[in-house]
Design a protein that fits this description.
This protein has 180 residues and is an alpha/beta fold. It contains five helices and seven strands; from the N terminus they run H-E-E-E-H-E-H-E-H-E-E-H. Helix 2 crosses helix 5 (167-176).
């Protein structure tokens, strides 16, 4: 084997070894060392708190809804399944808001003007919150839209629904978190 070929083989081996070491290092860091903080999961874990701005410019703090059942829906205007379920959420909101239920719709990453136009066009009356940077979506490990978290009156996440819901499904889920 000539000298140039040996150098290429050594370079490739070194490169592959470096990538493997970096990959293992990252896996160790992300799984064991990195501070994960509170993240969303179902069960007896409290829903991670957040403070977001609504379309009127008011701060909305999830902890302020303790004592109520909360349907927390992550969505975007460009998402056809999200758009399809909005009238179902609106209809249910009108029927359940006096039963201790709150619907919070978190738009992920879109400008206020776009979201405001969508909300006006659809005639939505429940609170719509803006997660411009996607920090709250990251906190809840949102990977697809729509995704909905059901939070009971104790502030615990009791269920997570991925994908579009029918009107019947929305109402069944709300029935499950009506405060006792």
């Amino acid at each position: 084997m000539n000298n140039k070929r040996k150098q290429v083989v050594l370079f490739i081996r070194g490169f592959i070894t470096s990538i493997l070491v970096l990959g293992i290092g990252y896996a160790i860091y992300s799984n064991f060392i990195k501070d994960k903080g509170a993240t969303a999961s179902t069960g007896t874990n409290l829903a991670p708190n957040f403070i977001l701005i609504d379309l009127k410019g008011n701060e909305v703090n999830l902890e302020d809804y303790r004592g109520k059942g909360v349907l927390l829906n992550f969505w975007a205007t460009y998402c056809p399944p999200c758009e399809k379920e909005m009238p179902y959420l609106e209809s249910a909101y009108k029927d359940y808001k006096d039963k201790g239920i709150e619907i919070l719709a978190v738009d992920v990453g879109e400008p206020r003007i776009l979201v405001d136009q969508f909300v006006s066009k659809k005639g939505l009356s429940f609170p719509v919150l803006l997660d411009w940077k996607g920090d709250t979506a990251d906190l809840y490990k949102v990977q697809t839209l729509p995704i909905t978290f059901l939070i009971n009156e104790k502030g615990e996440i009791v269920d997570k629904i991925t994908g579009e819901m029918t009107e019947e499904a929305v109402r069944q889920h709300l029935d499950s978190i009506v405060p006792k």
